[in-house]
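Data card: per-record layout.
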Amino acid sequence: MVILLLGLLGSIFGVMTAMNYNLENSLRNEAIIIAQEQLEKARNMKYADIESANFPSEVQRQVRKALRSFQVNTTVTTDTNLKRIKILVQWTSRKRLHKYSAETMVRELI
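The structure for this 110-residue chain is written out next.
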């Protein structure tokens, strides 16, 4: 009886661990999607309109029936006829801060 109880407790612990890893992966995938959407938004803007102020600083998404907040930091640097857009998406899960960054470059059409 005790062996059966220990086996069931181990199985429950394994299921809970798998669910936590699955949630972490879902949040990371959502952060990647947010960063990609912001990069696509920048690529579709007029060159003169690409500025950090034209991007949201926080995005909320529903992940597993719960509304989650993602902090979005957009940095735009300008070189000659070229703008570098860097997107940093941050979120908190299980009291730890996670980050994902992506960047692209947009050239001014002459």
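Known properties of this structure: The helical segments are 2-44. The beta strands are 58-63, 66-79, 82-93, 96-107.

See the next section for split statistics.
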